[in-house]
Description:
By secondary structure, the protein is of the alpha/beta class. 36% of the residues lie in helices and 18% in strands. The chain has one domain (4-119, 205-381): Peroxisomal Thiolase, Chain A, domain 1. The protein is built from 15 helices and 11 strands. The strands form 2 sheets. Strands 3-2-4-7-1-8-11-10-9 form a 9-stranded mixed sheet. It has a two-stranded antiparallel sheet with strand order 5-6. Strand 2, helix 2 (54-57) and strand 3 form a beta-alpha-beta unit. Helix 3 (86-99) crosses helix 15 and helix 6 (157-171) packs across helix 12 (287-296). The protein is globular, with a radius of gyration of 19 Å.
Amino acid sequence: MRNTAIIGAGQTKHVKARDDASQAELVRQAATRALADAGITLRDVDAVVLANMELFEGRALPEMWVGEGAGGYLKPTLKIATGGTSGTSACIAGYHQCASGLFDIVLVVGWEKHSEGATQTGMALVDPLWDRSVASGAVGNFALSISQYAAERGVTPTQAAKVAVKARRNAAKNPYAHLQMPDLTVEQVLNSRMLADPVHLLDMCPQSDGACAIVYAAQGVAEKLCARPAWVRAAVTRHDQPYIGDLDRRLVTMRTLRDAARAAYQRVGITEPLKQFDVAEIYEPVSYAELAWYEALGFCAEGDAGKLIDDGVTEMSGELPVNPSGGVLSTNPVGASGVIRVAEAALQVMERAGAHQIPDVRLALATGYGVYAWSDVIILSADK
Length: 384
C-alpha cells in the first residue's frame, strides 16, 4: 500500500433547501472548489468516488445522472451508499483506490438534497414485523437508546444541551455550516420542542442540502502539489448487519465504533487518544451521541463523558477540540456528512480551516456513523 494524502477539500454552503441548484450542480460546485484547493483540474483526476443515500431523494442510480457533475464522464466512477456512513465509506474507498496503486489522484464527492425527498419517510422504511415496535425512525430510535444510555451512564439533559450549544457556536465560525447559532443557550435547548423524550428539537441535527469533496494523491504526487498534505495513517470500517431490535444496549455498547477505533489506534500507536489527538471530527447526529462517542472512542472512562463536556475539555480551546466545524449537529446532508468530517479533519492538518482552525494540529480523527451498526474511523496526520 502506498502512502496517500488528502491535498484538497471543498464544499458548498449547506442550507435547508438549495432551490437554486440541481444535485449535479451542487456536486460540481464542491468538486470544483476541492480541485482548486488542490491546485489541479479535472483532467488530472484518474477516478471518482461518489457518496449519496438515494433512498432519501427517492431516485435510483444517481451516479448515472449526477456523476457527470463530479467529472466522472469517461472516468472510472464508483458510488457508495451505506446510510450515515456513506461519506466516510466513500472516503475509505477513495483512499484504497489511490493507496493500492490503481490511481494516482482520486476525487471523492458526497452530496444530499433532502429538500427533494422525504427523509423521515425513508428512515421509516424498515421491516414491518420486526422493527416497527422499536420505532426505527431516527428520532424514536434515538430516544429509546438515549434513555438506556442516560440511565446506565448518568448523563443529563443539561450536559447533552451543552454539546448542542458547543456545536452551533462553533458552526458560527464556519461559513459553510447550516445552523449558525452563536448565542444559543442551554436553556433554549432544554425548552425547545420535545421530539421524543428525552430528545428536544435542538438536540437533533438538521436536514441539509449540500455537497463536499476531497482530493487524494499518492506519495510522490502529493508532496509536489501540497505544501502540507494530510496523510492517511489508518482507515477502518466495521459494519454489523442485524435487525435494529437485536442490538442490545445500542448507544451504550456501540461495538462497531469501539472495535474500529481500537484497530485504527493500534495501527498508529495511539494509547491515549485524549492526549495524542489534536482535533476530532466525529459524526454526532444527536447531542447525546457525542457524549456516548467520547466513551466509545476512549476519550474518557465509561460514565465520564458528562464530566468532559462540563469541564470544557472538548471546546475549541480545550485539550481535545471536538467538531470545531460545528459537526453533524449543525450540518447534515447525509451523503456528504461523512465527507465533511474527513474534509474538516484534513483542513485542520493542512492549516486551512480558517476561523475555526485549531493551532498546531498534527494528528486528527474523523469518524462516520450509521444506525448503530455501522462505523468508520479515519486518522490523518501531518506525518507520513
